[in-house]
Design a protein that fits this description.
With 147 residues, this protein is an alpha/beta fold. Helices cover 39% and strands 16% of the residues. The chain is built from five helices and five strands. The chain has a five-stranded parallel β-sheet with strand order 2-1-3-4-5, sandwiched between helices. α2 packs parallel to α5. It is globular, with a radius of gyration of 14 Å. The two termini are 17 Å apart. The protein binds 3-dehydroshikimate (DHK). The site of 3-dehydroshikimate has 10 residues, from loops.
Amino acid sequence: MNKPIYVLNGPNLNRLGTREPEIYGRTTLAELETMCRKAAGAQPIEFRQTNAEHELVDWIHEAIDAGSAIVINPAGLSFRSIPVLDALKMFPGPIIELHISNIHRREEIYRHSLMSTAATAVIMGLGPEGYATAVSAMLRLLKKKSA
Ligand code: DHK
């Protein structure tokens, strides 16, 4: 059995569906999980969300030992969390940083993600569909890695 892809979500993403729909759309986190599982097919995934920085760090540590890849939307932690960045730098597999919005078209405070230096790739601006795109892309990265 393949080790799971960890799809990790940061603060406030539990409010998707009603949170600033003009930016994030109306897809709920539960619907995003369904989209990810459909895109993953037989590949197992761990889909989680937290509002706590320490929990996101703990899950990245778990992925270091038990996961094959990480797709992460760190949300607001993207811009200030050295602990999340440091944890990602320890992860040996591929990492896709994901944002629903195009952070470069947002207010200045959202335009520089600390996480990107640890990411294999960054996907942003595709809206909620970006999650399925990220999982599909990760399947290809893992296949290339195992070839
Ligand atoms: C999600 C958030 O919660 C924001 O803090 C980021 C990101 C953007 C997103 O687009 O998924 O600025």
